[in-house]
Amino acid sequence: MKKFLSLLLACVLLGLSAAALAEDAASVPAFEDIVFPETMPTGYYKDAQSLDYSYDDMTETYEVEIVSQGYGVPHLPNDEDPILQYLNNAFNLDITFTVVNAEDLETHLSTRIAAGDYPDVFVLPSREFAFQLSDAGLLIDARELYPYLPLHQKYVTQGMIDFSTNTSNDEIAFVTKYGIQDGIWAAAIRTDWLEAFGMEMPTTREEIIEYAKACTFNDPDGNGQDDTWFMTAAGGGNGLGMLDNIFGTMAGSNQAYVDENGELSHPYFNGERKEFLTFCKELYDLGVLAPDWYTIDWETAKSYTLNDKIGLLYYPAGSLYTEYTMAQGNSNEETMAVWKFLEQYPIEGGKYSAAGNPGYMWAFSAPCFEGQEGKLLRVLHMIDTMCVGGENFSHTAQGADDIVYDQFGIERIGSQEFIYTDDGMFYIRQTNLDENGGEQFPYDQGSYGGLALASWQNFGLNVSWQLSDPDTGDPVIDNANAITNEAIKAIAAVDRWPNYGLNVTLTGEAAEASITLGDWINATEFEFVTGARSLDEYEDFANEWLSRGGQAIIEQTAECLGCEVPEYAQ
C-alpha cells in the first residue's frame, strides 16, 4: 500500500511545473517530520486561514462519493443540499453525499465493499472494521494523507496516531482528529456557599475537606435543618460516579502508562487508586455525602442540585446552567452566579481525566484513488478546510452560514454568522429570530437546518470550543451567556492527564476480564469506602484482581505500551 501511494503521489509531482514542484516540496512535510501534539489544544488554530494548499491546482473536475453518518433524520437529496452545492463550486467537484444512520453503517459498507462498490471516502463504524480493510489492502495509509492536511495536524495527538495504527501491518488505517464533544465536563462549586463560609476556591486537599464539612454542617441554605451535603456519587449503585469523575485522578492518571523508568505504572499498583479510595473514605467517615450517595441515579440526583442541597458537581457547563436556571425560574445574574466551574483542579498535584479522544474516523479507499492523484489531493484539501478555524468550517457546520444559502439562491430571514474570538473559541450570531426568539427559515428544523444537514459537520464541528453569542442585545441573555462562556473556556483550559489509554487495546481474555470484573471491583471499592473492608487489605484486593483476570490485562497493556510485564504480574 505504501508503494502504491508513493507511486501515486510521484505521478502528481511529475504533472506539475518545476516552480510548483519546488513550492510543494517546501510546503508539504514528510510524515516523519510532522510533530503531533501530546495533548489537545485548548482552542482552535488561529492561523488556519494562512495554511498553504498550493499542492492542489484546482483545475480538473472530479467525481467523488463520501459516505457519512446520519442522525435519524433524512438528509436532503444531493440536488437540494446547499452545502454540497457550495463545496462543488468551491472545489470544482461533483460530490455524491451518501448518509447512513449509525446502526446501519457497518452493514452498508460491508455489503458494498464485498461487491467491489467502494465509496471514495467513508466514515468508519469502528477501528476494528478499518483494520480488517487495511489488512485486505483496501485503504490508503494515512501516512500518505496527513502531510496534505496541515490543519488536521494541529488537532491530531500522537495518541490518536497510535490509536489508528494497525499493528498487523503498521499502516495508519484512517484519518481522525478531535471529537465533536470531548473534555466538556469539569467540577462546579457553589460560590454563594463559599462566600457564606468566608472561603476561597479550594486548591488543596485540606481546603476541599473544610469546604465539604461546611456544606454539610454549617447550614448554608439557612433553613435550620441538616439537609445539605457536600456531594453525591449519582452512580446508581454502579461505582463511585461523580466522586470518581472529579477525584479519581487526584493522585495521578487513572490509566496505565509507562513511567520515567520505562516501567508499567498501573493505578492499582502505584498507589494512585488507593489514595483516591482513602480520600473517599475520609469523606464518608465525615458524613459529608448525601444519605443515598451511592444508590441514587444521575437523573434523580438532580433534585439535590436544583433544590440547593449539594455543594460540588461534575457537569458540562451548558447543561448545568440551563437546568439550574429553569428550576429557579429565571436566568438573572444572581442565579447564574451560584455555580462556578473551577479553573484549577481542587487538590494539589491532581489533574482531570484525559481528553483527546478520537472523533469520527475517515477512511480513503485505495482502489478509488488509483490513477486519481489529483482527485486525492482535492478531497484532502477540502476536508482540511472544514476543521474549526478553516475556511469552510462555517460553510459546513451547524447548518452553515449565510454565504452558502446566498449561493444556492435561498431566501432567508435574518442571518447566521460564525465569529472567532481571540482566546481560541467561536460563536454563532443569529439575527434570524422572530419576536419570541424562535428561529425562522432557513435555520429551523425543516428543510434547511436542524439535523437535515448535520452529517456535514461530522468533518469539523467541535462544541468544546463553541460559545454563545455574548452580545444579543438582551441584558439578561447576555449576562447568562457571559457566565456560561467563561465556564466553557475554563473547562477547555483545565489541566488533564495525557490519554495513555489510546495506546491500549484489549482482546480475548483481557477484554473479557475488563468487563466481567466490573461489578466485583465496584462492590469491593464500596466496601473500602464504607469501612466494611479495611484499606489495609488493598494489596490483597489488587492481587486478587490479578488472579481473576487482571494478569491478562496487565500483560496486554504492557505489550501495547511496549514495556516489560511488571514482576508482580509474572
From TrEMBL:
<feature type="signal peptide">
    <location>
        <begin position="1"/>
        <end position="22"/>
    </location>
</feature>
<dbReference type="InterPro" id="IPR050490">
    <property type="entry name" value="Bact_solute-bd_prot1"/>
</dbReference>
<protein>
    <submittedName>
        <fullName>Extracellular solute-binding protein</fullName>
    </submittedName>
</protein>
<dbReference type="Pfam" id="PF01547">
    <property type="entry name" value="SBP_bac_1"/>
</dbReference>
<dbReference type="InterPro" id="IPR006059">
    <property type="entry name" value="SBP"/>
</dbReference>
<keyword id="KW-0732">Signal</keyword>
